[in-house]
Input
Amino acid sequence: MTQSEQELPAGTAQHEPAATASPSLVLIGLIIGVGIAGTLDEVILHQLLQWHNLYVHTSESGRIVSDGLFHLVSSALLLAGSLLLWRRRHAPRRPGDGRRFGGAILLGLGGFNLYDGTIQHKVLRLHQVREGVANLLPYDLGFLAIAILVAAAGWALLASGRRRS
Output
């Protein structure tokens, strides 16, 4: 019997140390936030509004395939984040955990959209917010403004959760 097992009350099962074995709520929240951003982008901008596809410089079949791969990745991130959160279910709770977790989700969501709006839209030119319009500027500014507001709200919530712990 190890030293830590000897210190446990009788009948208590030993679990892996939650603080070191489980990923942080912030990391899990970031993963889930990016998964949510990708899923919302795919559903709203790609499917419902049909404003763009992930990769527009290809055939219609290529566009559908690129969207499908994007959807698989965002779904995988949601699943991975959910599994990591489930794995943390026995970790001790601290004051501010909910704020940190919620803030990280918003930061992941807004951060992904900032990356998407700058790198994928403008640098790599994989797609624009809205294809086929004469003036992209209002769409770009609106997309980036929402991303900045969501990321800033996440950062503020994350910071307020740190102060509570």
